[in-house]
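Researcher: Go.
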Amino acid sequence: MEPFPSGYREDLFQRAEKFLCFEDFIQHALGLKPHIAWSLAGRTMMFNVKSHFWEPEILQSVGLSPSKLATPVPSGMVVGRISPVIASDLSFSGEVIVVSGGYDQPMGALGAGVIDPDMAMYATGTSECITPAFQEPVMSEALMWNNLCTYDYTISGMYTTVSFSLTGGNILRWFRDEWGRIEVPGAIFGLRLATKREQVLRSLLEGVAFEMKLNLEILAQSGIHIDELRPIGGGGQRALLGYSSRPMSSTSP
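Model: Structure:
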C-alpha cells in the first residue's frame, strides 16, 4: 500500500527543506537551528519515547529523512542565542537565549507545580485535560484502546500522558450562544415542564465531570495513580467557579 493517498503533492513534499512544529518553526524563524522538545516530538507519532530518536522504520515508510526534521532535545535545554539584530527588531535588549519548551499540556502541568508522581494537572479550558507525571513510560492496553499516548514529560526522566475530553469550556460557550437567545434547543432528553435553565447547565458540567472521571479510571487501570489534581485554565479561576483554588481530590474531578 502506498504511504500517501493519490493526489497528494509529492513535488512539494520532496522540495520541502524542513517539516517543523510550532516550537522548532519559531526557532527557525529566529535564525536558529531548529530543535524540538521530546514531549512535542512524541506528538508527531514519529518519535521513539524510549530511545529519544526519530524512529527509522516510521520515517522510512513515509520516505522522510531525519535531516528534514528538527533535532530532538529534552525540555529546558538552551538551543541557541538570538542575533543582536533580530533581538533588536523584537525589542529585546542584551543577550537573548532560546530554551526548548514542549507540548502545551505538559508545559502547563509543570507551571502548575506537577513535579512528582501521583500528581496531575487538570486543565479546564475549551477542552478538559488531565496530565499526570510518572517515572517510567506506560504502554498499557487500557491507554492504547482509549487513544491515549505516552510522551516525555517536561522534567527529564519523567513521562506523561494527556487524558482528555474534547468537550469542556466549549459546551459552556454553546450554552451561552444557544440558551442566551430566544430559540429553544430541541434535542435534550429528559426535559420536563419543571426543568429549569440552571439544571440544564448543571447537567452539561456534570457530563464533563463524569467523562474526566472515566479518564482517571483509565489511568488507574494503567497503573498511573493520582492523589492530587491541580486546576489551571479559565475554569480554574476562583471568581468564575466560586470555590477554593486548592488542589482537588482525584475522587471528585
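Model: Confidence is low (pLDDT under 50) at residues 239-253.
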